[in-house]
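Input/output pair, single chain:
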Amino acid sequence: MKQKILFVCIHNSARSQMAEAFLDQICGDIFEAHSAGIEPGKLNPIVVEAMQEAGIDISGNRTKSVADYLSQPFAYVITVCDETSAERCPIFPGVTKRLHWGFPDPSGFQGTHDEKLTRTREIRDQIKARVEAWCEEICPACA
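Output:
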């Protein structure tokens, strides 16, 4: 049985979506990845574009609320937003390990489309590297 993992950020529009997609790609045979937002928003089109460049299509994803998952047990709840926002994440039932991986929010990036895309790629690559490192640590056979 796969361990359930929930990635949480503010709007479930960027960071948590990328983390969920990378976990599915890297160790989806071991973990069942989900993502949600404290205040769900709209999927960030620049994030969709950056993920397509990495060979992952998240264009059909929808944003989800943390409230939708409160009754479900998770092995890990991983916040990928800033520390202050992570403190707003609710407590989940059962034996859940909480981790915090802070990444800048692509929705706050300023500049031209290309400038925002460049910065989003950097965050995408940081998230992928963090998921890879975590999978290797938790499950060496996954890496």
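The chain is about 35% helix and 15% strand. The CA atoms of residues 80 and 102 lie 5 Å apart.
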